Amino acid sequence: MPEPESKNSIKQSTRPQTGSSLFHRKTILILIITAVLSLITIIGITIISIYIKKAETLINKTTTTTDASTTVNEPKFNKWKQNAITVAGGNEQGKKSNQLDDPTGIFIDKNKNIFIADFNNHRIVEWKYNAKEGQIIAGGNDAGNRMDQLHYSTDVIVDQQNHSIIIADRNNRRVIQWLNQKQQILIDNIDCFGLAIDKNGFLYVSDWLKNEVRRWKMGEYNEGIVMAGGNGKGNQLNQLNFPGFICVDEDQSVYVSDNNNHRVMKWRRDAKEGIIVAGGNDEGGNLNQLYYPEGVIVDDLGQIYVADAMNDRIMRWYEEKKEGEIVVGGNGYGNQSNQLFDPMGLSFDNEENLYVADSGNDRIQKFEIIL
C-alpha cells in the first residue's frame, strides 16, 4: 500500500489533483474491501462457533442420556469394606454371655438384632443391635433332648409374622419352634440342617441324610413336599450330597449348598432336577470352584452369595457365569478383620450390610456396604 501524503503536502494545495484523487479512491476502496472481508470473517467465525457449541451440547446430551440409560439398565454391583466389625462374640471360645463357640446359622431381623445358632453351646443367642453381649433365648441347658434343651443346633430363622423362633435341632432330629418361651416340635424324625421361609410362609428344611429339601405349609406338618433332591446321594443334576444351608427367592426357587459336591444348586419350583449356579468343578480354590460351601443367600438381582468355607472367603456368583468373584475374605484363614476362618452362615440386614458367622473365630463379622 502506498504511503499516505504528509501533512505538509496537504497544506501546500487545497485543490485536489487527479493523481491524489485516484490515490484516495483506491485507499477508500481498499479500506471498504478490508472492512467487508473482516466482517465476513467475523460472521463466519461466529457462525462456526455457534455450530461447534451446538455440536458439543448435542454430544453432551447424548453422553448424558447414554450414561443415564446405562445406569438405569445395569445392575447395582454392591461392594463391602474389606475390614469387618465384630458384632457378636470375638472374645475367645466359650459359653459366657459375650462369647460364642462355633456359630453356624444366623438370622438378622428388621431391627438388626442377630439370632445365632451357637452350635457347640447347644443354644440360640439373640444379640441386640450394638450390644456387648447376647441373651440366651433357646437351649443353653447343656446338650439334651428335653424341650428346654438343644443338641448341636445348626440353623435358626425368625418367623416375623408371629415373632417365633424356628430351630434346626440337628442331633435331636427335629425342627422346633419357640414362641413366648413355649416350645413345640414342628417336624420330628428329620435329619435337619438348613432352614428357610418364603414370602408365603412356607417352611423349607434340608435333610442331609436323605439328601433332599422339603417344604411344609405352616401348621401342616405331615410329609411335606420334596423341592430338591430326593433321588439318593450323588452328583447328578437330580441328586444332592449332604445338602446344608438353603435359601428361597421370590419365585420360590430353592438354592442349596450341596456341600460334598462342592457346588450350589438351584431348583426352580416343581422342577425335576436342579442347575448348577456356583462351583461344580471339583473342590479347589480357583474362581470357578468351591470347597465345602456352607451359607447361601440370594439378593434381589438374583446374585448368589456363598460362604466358601474351606477357602475362607465369601463369593458372589451370577447364574450364567462360569466363575465367581471374591467379595470379602480370601486372605488366608486367620482372625484379622479382613480374614475369615471356616465361614458358615450368611445374612444381609435391611441396609445390605453383609454378616458372616465366622465359626472358626467364634464371632459374627459385619462387612459394611460401600455406598
UniProtKB/TrEMBL annotation:
<dbReference type="InterPro" id="IPR001258">
    <property type="entry name" value="NHL_repeat"/>
</dbReference>
<keyword id="KW-0472">Membrane</keyword>
<feature type="repeat" description="NHL">
    <location>
        <begin position="239"/>
        <end position="270"/>
    </location>
</feature>
<dbReference type="InterPro" id="IPR011042">
    <property type="entry name" value="6-blade_b-propeller_TolB-like"/>
</dbReference>
<dbReference type="Pfam" id="PF01436">
    <property type="entry name" value="NHL"/>
</dbReference>
<feature type="transmembrane region" description="Helical">
    <location>
        <begin position="28"/>
        <end position="52"/>
    </location>
</feature>
<keyword id="KW-1133">Transmembrane helix</keyword>
<keyword id="KW-0812">Transmembrane</keyword>
<feature type="repeat" description="NHL">
    <location>
        <begin position="284"/>
        <end position="314"/>
    </location>
</feature>
<dbReference type="GO" id="GO:0008270">
    <property type="term" value="F:zinc ion binding"/>
</dbReference>
<dbReference type="InterPro" id="IPR050952">
    <property type="entry name" value="TRIM-NHL_E3_ligases"/>
</dbReference>
<keyword id="KW-0677">Repeat</keyword>
<protein>
    <recommendedName>
        <fullName>NHL repeat containing protein</fullName>
    </recommendedName>
</protein>
